[in-house]
Write a structure and sequence with these properties.
Elements lengths: L1 H6 L6 E3 L21 E2 L9 H15 L11 E5 L6 E9 L5 E9 L9 H13 L6 E5 L2 E5 L3 E3 L2 H4 L2 H15 L11 H12 L7 H7 L4 H11 L9 H26 L6 H29 L1
Parallel strand pairs: 2-6
Antiparallel strand pairs: 1-8, 3-4, 4-5, 5-7, 6-7
Helix pairs in contact: 6-8, 6-9, 9-10
Length: 300
């Protein structure tokens, strides 16, 4: 119940197609980062896609031996929408047999190491990929990774109202949380939130309009809210409250992440506006969560 008083003190998921049951011989199927192909090559993300395509093709030839002797005319490189941290490219390869294979090349955005622990990310992807979640890890290179290409579409609000689909999502989420990943089991949420806070609170924008908007943010308020949410749950009855706490914390996490991206990312996305969207959603949902928490605890 202490968590309840702490919370209230201040009164694009994708729907992928099923993974293939078999794999082409030209693409490795290992999910261990120590076993997948590795290349020291890097791709300059400041270039346009047509300008970087020759380098991407060279990279694919370097990583996958069955593609190494194919003429560059067999390769087609195009962008994939949806990446808000990485630049996503779809590379389609027409083999001599006439068959076409596709992979996704994820290029890390410049300075993304500022907000993402790449070593931790690769470690988790190895286990999640082996468990059938997301695209398979096929290769790693100097500033990115290659994964299997998954045909998918973004869920619509109508999709989310479908009880059968909601049940399937819940089943997959349950299975996701059962994946055993080696290493520390200590939650990283709060470490990441306060790390993001330190970095997000000292930014300066060259764009005067962005800087003006940035200066309207009360970082003291954000810090106090994060400290408030971090209060530990001490009894089983407060588990309901804890669940809502982590839902609220996710808004602060992504809001601070967006601020850093607004300064660092070259991608065409309004990260600064996304900060306000997520933080305003936090403030809106905090009130509702407090009411639910009070109602639950009063009835228990």
């Amino acid at each position: 119940m202490g968590a309840a008083s702490k919370i209230c003190k201040n009164d694009a998921m994708d729907l992928p197609s099923p993974p293939p049951t078999s794999n082409s011989t030209s693409i490795p199927t290992s999910t261990s980062t120590s076993d997948v192909p590795y290349s020291h090559l890097t791709v300059d993300t400041s270039l346009s896609v047509p300008e970087m395509s020759p380098r991407v093709i060279e990279l694919c030839k370097d990583l996958f031996k069955d593609w190494s002797k194919l003429d560059s005319s067999h390769f087609h490189v195009e962008t994939v929408s949806g990446g808000i941290t990485n630049l996503l490219l779809k590379v389609s390869v027409k083999k001599d047999s006439g068959d076409t294979e596709s992979v996704t090349v994820r290029l890390y955005g410049p300075n993304t190491d500022y907000v993402i622990n790449r070593e931790r990310e690769l470690h988790a992807i190895k286990y999640l990929s082996a468990a059938g979640f997301g695209a398979k890890l096929l290769a790693v290179f100097g500033n990115g990774m290659v994964q299997s290409f998954i045909k998918a579409r973004t869920l619509t609000p109508a999709d989310m109202k479908n009880p059968e689909l909601a049940a399937e999502i819940a089943k997959e989420l349950h299975r996701f949380h059962q994946v055993e990943i080696s290493g520390s089991k200590e939650p990283q949420l709060w470490n990441d939130i306060f790390k993001f806070y330190e970095r997000a609170s000292v930014l300066e924008f060259d764009d005067s309009e962005k800087q003006k908007k940035y200066q309207t943010i009360s970082f003291k308020e954000i810090y106090d809210e994060a400290v408030d949410l971090k209060a530990p749950v001490k009894d089983l009855d407060a588990l309901y409250v804890e669940t809502n706490t982590y839902m609220l914390a996710s808004h602060i996490f992504w809001a601070l992440w967006a601020l850093i991206q607004a300064k660092m990312s070259p991608l065409n996305f309004d990260y600064l506006e996304y900060f306000f969207l997520r933080y305003n959603e936090f403030k809106k949902q905090k009130h509702d969560c407090c009411l639910l928490a009070r109602s639950f605890l009063q009835g228990s």
